[in-house]
Amino acid sequence: MAAPRGRATRLALALALALGAPLGALSAPPPPPPKTAGLRGVRAIVANASAEDLERSLDSLLASIRLGADAALLRRVGSIEAAMARTFQALPKNEFGRLPPHGVRHVMRTYFATVSGWLIRGLEPGGMQVDTKHLHDVSILSERAPALLEALLEARSAGWGLSMESIAALVVLVERLILEESVQVLESAYEVTGFDVRQPLREQDLHTVLATYLIMHEHGHAAHEVNESAIGELLEQVHTFDDPPCLADMENDAVYNSLFDKRYAASPFGQKPQHFGFEDASRLARYLTRAYGKEQNIQCGLMKDHLVHLDRSGQGLVPLGSFYAQDPSMSYSFAESTEYLSKIGALEQPAQRAPSVRIANYVLGPSNCIASSAYFATCCFDECATLMGELEGRVKAPAASPERLLGLVSRMSSSSVDAPRRLSGSLSGRLHSIAAENGGEVPLHGRLFAQWMHRAFPHECAHPHVAEDVKVLTTSHWEDQDFYSTSDEMEAYVRLAAEGGLTDDAAPLTWSAGEVLPLQADARTSRWGSVGVGVVRAAAALALGLVVLRLALAGWSAASRAVAGAGAG
After folding, report:
1. Average pLDDT for residues 12-35, to the nearest whole number?
2. Cβ atoms of residues 392 and 87 within 8 Å
């Protein structure tokens, strides 16, 4: 159900101010602080009351960003801006120096992929296709913050694009919504373990509730299976699981750090707190939600190291027979079907040779995402995005000469590549050919340079597979599908490799021609054609100003009625 217009008014106004529109005296007074919402059960997650509480929370958040009244919030926005700055400055921009929709999606996806390992529904990779989804496909916005989404679409329709500051604010809002969801899962953990959210917990009970929360978080869509009858066995598994990340250690560290902070805040020599309220548990649940991705990425790193050990060619490829081999001494076993591997771009199939698995594509694939909820999943961190961020920070532009890029990349290291190094003549020649195809410079965010980075960092950078359907790169596409091979299918490939039916020696990698520039399509084309930029700025400012004036008046009226109603009550 759409949110009342008054909420969209305040959100649109706050966003317009973040966008830098010349609104002057049109600024409406800040909304009153939201009332504290009552605690709700897990079934209230999708209830209208919950949605209204979220909208009030977003009102307050945007007002705090606008007025600078919350120092902690401003620090958070500032840290996000700092993390996004290198990517933002290197992306193609519109006439106003702002990012159009494709760029906004790219910056947000890169931020979450490198900082928390979160893959936000609606911000998944576009499969090197220009015609990708826009912000209205971000499910957490369309379902839980419809008024915010309406404000974003109205601002975009004026042709302004988004500044780095407004993108950072949007990231904060998405984080806030995800963390709100984590608190609702915590309520369910209380219920499953038989505790009352209104009653304080002893330390040992807090450990039980938080361990249950982590189990439910990790189960994602299947969290409903974590019930009273199953929780005992699941908690025992948590405390006996030895491989990192150990959920028990993660939860224990969070509680003990909190104990130290609370004790020191009361008195450096005070007693350890004996009881913990729901606010204490909520704060810890939000911390665990943020930290979970980093802990889970330890497993991703170990899995990648295992696959790299199987790569005899050094080209980022593992023969399919080796991939499927089930050696009891191995730390990992893999069973994804060739159909799945092919669709996500993780299968190399040279003629007359055994198929191989592309390590980077596989690691970043949907099957390695866990804790999948309706709005996000936790996936392996994108190491290539970190490398690209380093490169973007040095280039500070959407494109660069091949000579400069060769010099920069030769001094970049990764988890499997040492620097400095001498790049091969083949890599140098390919880079010059990319530049020749693009007017003398190499676009940093095109398909050909992504393919070149895959050659330069084969274990970190995925091959830029052009997906026929970008849905195959999302976790939701595979949730209800069986994408695993049968034992017979895997044994056939293992046996074929052992018998030498097809050689599993790596063939020279083929170069796939054809440039795609997904981030430049809507930055190059002006919505106003040949109209002068000055006139465009004035027209956009006037249009946005009129929209905000209309919305501000409606919001002022709604706020006045709300105040009057409160006074009457």
Report:
1. 34
2. yes
